[in-house]
């Protein structure tokens, strides 16, 4: 059994992360799930959430939104539409996006696409949480 996993996080633009990790936690559509070396192979749909991974005693966190994860006993490959490292998140822009989404959800217009507005709010809140968590270290 492998002692570490090769974690690869890929967006349409680039490979964001390639690292040897001891543990990975992913936001699946059915809830968060953890992966350790030797995990049973699976393919999982991902939703808006925090992806965390541990290397030794150090934990790392990213914001991701929608995608797929392929889990093999010694490898986790994440294909995500959006993935952001904490240092790449523009906190001011995320705060503005949160305010816009909340305003949209607060309006009672017939043309409101509730699912889209709720998704935008979830992404903005996630970005703010990931950025603030990284700055708190």
UniProtKB/TrEMBL annotation:
It is found in: Cell membrane. The keyword Transport applies. Residues 87-131 form the ATP synthase epsilon subunit C-terminal domain. Its main location: membrane. GO terms for cellular component: plasma membrane; proton-transporting ATP synthase complex. InterPro entries: ATP_F1_dsu/esu_C_sf, ATP_synth_F1_dsu/esu, ATP_synth_F1_dsu/esu_N, ATP_synth_F1_esu_C, ATPsynth_dsu/esu_N. GO terms for molecular function: ATP binding; proton-transporting ATP synthase activity, rotational mechanism. It holds the Pfam family ATP-synt_DE. Keywords: ATP synthesis, Cell membrane, CF(1), Hydrogen ion transport, Ion transport, Membrane, Transport. It is a peripheral membrane protein. F-type ATPases have 2 components, CF(1) - the catalytic core - and CF(0) - the membrane proton channel. CF(1) has five subunits: alpha(3), beta(3), gamma(1), delta(1), epsilon(1). CF(0) has three main subunits: a, b and c. Belongs to the ATPase epsilon chain family. This is ATP synthase epsilon chain.
